[in-house]
Specification:
Length: 294
Amino acid sequence: MVMVRTPDGVNLYAEEHGSGTPVLFIHEFAGDHRSWAPQVGALATRYRCITYSARGYPPSDVPEDPADYSQRHAVADAIAVLDALEVDRAHVVGLSMGGFCTLHLGLEHPERVRSMVVAACGWGSAPDRRSEFRAECEHLADSLRAEGMAKVAERYALGPTRVQLAGKDPLGWRRFAGQLAEHSAVGSANTQLSVQRERPPLYELADRLAGVDLPALVIAGDEDEGCLEPGLMLKRTLPRSGLLVLPKTGHTVNLEEPDAFNRAILEFLAAVEAGRWGRRDPRARGLSSTGLER
């Protein structure tokens, strides 16, 4: 393990396992560095796997001021981890909140990114649900402050896109829920208010994302309603992207279907490193199935 000091003085807890080409994992709101255990176990024999807990997630520091959290801070923190571990470029794997961070790394620091895996990403991006999404973030933050982390975690871990994990893997779900209950209520509330609520929705970034010339694999569960349409938008927008939709799967896709998730990542990374993950053929665009003009 290593403690990484960010430019603004926040300490981030990081771990690395294995050797080879670096892979940086960026966790979701309800996760932390431990959430990637199934992926580290599968990839560490071939890759240098780096995980860390975001600011606000112990054992990383938990700043009290919401102004110390933002999408900009999240991107800067990921770069700080890479710098501290002397990594010039890494494959980046992000889930949900971590998927947003991954995309912003591709936008702002493409020279540091070999490829992107963007999983379960897009919650709150639907244009017609923006106000409702912001209200949900505020309600969750208020609940965390009023009730504490353990109490809120009981309900959050059984939300509409989390029950799938409970049904498939009760032991794994208990581990997930237990780790969630250990999080900081202050850090989680600040993350909701300043990272989640204030981040730009994906659809507003579409023009910029169309210029990100990095290999990308987009992964979504078919029961993760808030991320299905954004996942399809990312596939249509990122010029070097592929889309994998896993059936009967919710938001915690890396824990629900670890074998399929790991296999997809390994195949994607192998294709990228062999130069076989190119841009979409422009002839593949359009709604016609025949290619015959009328």
